[in-house]
């Protein structure tokens, strides 16, 4: 069975990552797993390769190895305590919330277990940012590139969506995002704002009108919006505020401005300044 994975650490956003994961779990009727990855740079491992040949004292080398093992044990105990605390903070769900501890980079862990993932959740900022939740964690952009699964990104306290902005450009990945929403009915009881930025060709407008007609009966309400020209990130940020939506949804890696957006500097601009959680559908 596929699972929802909430990637947590000791950051201020960890509770919202868990809450967002719980919401996905309930909406999609899938089990939730809280994942804590202990990054390699935090384990303090000492590389002793070649040291013996340099005349190093064997007892000192053994002491260093024992210290490394003890530190790893303490980090694992801390991870377990963190996961248990977050697990207990969640309301009772349809299925028990599982926990998973892994040493190593979180994105590598997600890639290793991707066959079991339906969607994963991350917070915009990491543990090192303290309460400064507008900073973008270094793992976010690499996750979008490397992990071939949909991502829900929280940027503050998570609010169950009542309305959402759906970015549309007429391309394959935008259509895929719509198909996924219709298939899962994840946002079926929400107000949808279908937003097209910049692309004003007749073919794209025809595609937009076709999707608009198809979606009219699928959500609580649907409202079309055309935004002519301008920077895609700035335009979407402005629409977020104007419409006061709870969530922004888009497909990733299409051959258009959205592709440029997700592999360029605009990625960080939207993520760093977003007023809503972001759902990137793959």
UniProtKB/TrEMBL annotation:
Which InterPro entries does the record match to this protein? Universal_stress_UspA, UspA
**Residue ranges occupied by any UspA domain in the UniProt entry:** 1-152, 165-282
Give the matching SUPFAM superfamilies: Adenine nucleotide alpha hydrolases-like
Which PANTHER family would you find in this protein's record?
STRESS RESPONSE PROTEIN NHAX (PTHR46268), UNIVERSAL STRESS PROTEIN UP12 (PTHR46268:SF6)
Family, per entry: Belongs to the universal stress protein A family.
What name does the UniProt record give this protein?
UspA domain-containing protein
